Amino acid sequence: MLKGIQHPDDARAALDAGMDGVIVSNHGGRQVDRAVGSLTALPGVVAAVAGRVPVLFDSGIRTGADAALALALGADAVLLGRPYAYGLALDGEAGVRHVLRCVLAELDVTLALAGHASLPEVRAAEGLTHTAWG
């Protein structure tokens, strides 16, 4: 998988080079003022890949609501960076487990409050934009 994809052309080039998947990511923060945010880039990358390989999302996922939004916009999975590291620093393995339980619980609540019973139902919704979810 190739991490750091922020443009549909880069996603297509990754596929042409034989990548088994792409990770939409800004590597932990915008390095240039006014650079496109990864969430804004996600739908274009998903469209460019067109289901040929998995698209993962790795930028700014801190809560279940963040995960729901990225999944609704087409990511096949999301990656947690800082949240699990914070849990690890505070309480080792138990801290990581707690963070993961919290993110999954927030994801469930977000889906329910948005009127969706499951992630596949969210993925099937049409017309979603990052402004539609927050």
How would you describe this structure in keywords?
globular, four-stranded parallel sheet, TIM Barrel, about 130 residues, alpha/beta, single chain
Write the layout of secondary structure elements.
Blueprint: E1 2-5, H1 8-16, E2 22-25, H2 38-49, E3 55-58, H3 64-72, E4 77-78, H4 82-113, H5 119-124
Helix pairs in contact: 1-2, 3-4
Question: What do you see in this structure?
Answer:
The protein has about 130 residues and is α/β, with parallel strands linked by helices. The protein has a single domain, classed as Aldolase class I (TIM Barrel). Helix content is about 50%, strand content about 10%. It is built from five helices and four strands; from the N terminus they run E-H-E-H-E-H-E-H-H. It has a four-stranded parallel β-sheet with strand order 1-2-3-4, with helices on one face. Helix 3 links the parallel strand 3 and strand 4. The longest helix has about 30 residues, at about 80-115. The chain is globular, with a radius of gyration of 15 Å. Mean pLDDT is about 90; it is low at about 130-134.
Overview in brief:
This protein is α/β, with parallel strands linked by helices and 134 residues long. It has helices at residues 8-16, 38-49, 64-72, 82-113, 119-124, and strands at 2-5, 22-25, 55-58, 77-78.
